[in-house]
Specification:
With 230 residues, this protein is mainly alpha-helical. The protein folds into two domains: 80 residues, Helicase, Ruva Protein, domain 3 (Orthogonal Bundle); 133 residues, no CATH class. Helix content is 52%, strand content 8%. It is built from eleven helices and three strands, in the order H-H-H-H-H-H-H-E-H-H-E-E-H-H. The protein has a three-stranded antiparallel beta sheet. Helix 3 packs parallel to helix 5, helix 4 packs across helix 5 and helix 7 packs antiparallel against helix 11. The protein starts with 18 loop residues before the first helix and ends with a helix. 28% of the residues are buried.
């Protein structure tokens, strides 16, 4: 059979910039999966709103990852723990980092060591130092640097980063336009981070939080490239 002639592919992945659609689809997916398994349980019996949103976030919009993480979260339920909570989802996602790293080594089109150094830099700078999960990059500067642009695109394709807004301002305003990127939950260092402000990709509710996110400069990333490519 010939693709796009006899058969067609259907893309079920969602990007996090379509947050409302993503959550609705994942809820329908999980509800249908549970019904087809002949289980009598309801989604709301094992999740509250926060933990379900965390699972949507941790999946990065990929249905396969969503169901894999859900299955691992279910294994934590017992007589004393009847609901899946936010820290549990985070811990399961962090444990899944090893699988994502294998995919990086197998599927990456770029230098693996370079990508790992950039991932570690972003985690240290954004999560560890700034205690958040979103950062901004200047659009104009990014467009001027093809090397860095390809690097960011590769990390998005591998689901280590997620773009949540490709045209936002920063706070305080400097007239420039930025893209906002969200760190994958697998990059968190633990499931209960202290003094941590997690930004959800909800542009209506968290627009100000996104605009106030730390800025990563092209120069920062160019330095990492220079060190790891030579």
């Amino acid at each position: 059979m010939e693709l796009n002639a006899d058969i067609y592919d259907i893309d079920l992945d969602y990007t996090l910039d379509k947050w409302g659609d993503l959550k609705r689809f994942k809820k329908d997916l999980l509800t249908t999966s549970i019904r087809l398994s002949k289980s009598s349980i309801e989604v709301d019996e094992i999740f509250n709103e926060e933990s379900f949103e965390q699972l949507c976030l941790a999946s990065g919009g990929v249905p396969r990852d969503f169901l894999v993480l859900f299955n691992k979260c279910c294994s934590t339920i017992n007589e004393s723990t009847t609901k899946i909570n936010v820290p549990t989802v985070r811990e399961v996602a962090i444990q899944n980092y090893a699988n994502k790293k294998v995919a990086l080594e197998k599927d990456s089109l770029m230098n693996e060591n370079l990508l790992e150094h950039v991932i570690n830099f972003l985690r240290d700078k954004v999560f560890v130092e700034k205690r958040t999960n979103v950062f901004l990059i200047d659009n104009e500067m990014l467009e001027r640097d093809e090397e860095v642009k390809n690097l960011i695109r590769e990390l998005i394709d591998l689901r280590f980063l997620h773009i949540i807004d490709n045209n936002t301002s920063a706070a305080p305003s400097d007239v420039k336009r930025y893209s906002a990127y969200l760190l994958d939950v697998s990059l968190y260092t633990n499931g209960r981070p202290r003094n941590f402000k997690e930004v959800k990709p909800d542009l209506k509710i968290q627009r100000d939080d996104i605009r106030s996110s730390p800025r990563i400069t092209i120069a920062n990333l160019k330095e990492i490239i220079k060190i790891n490519v030579l």
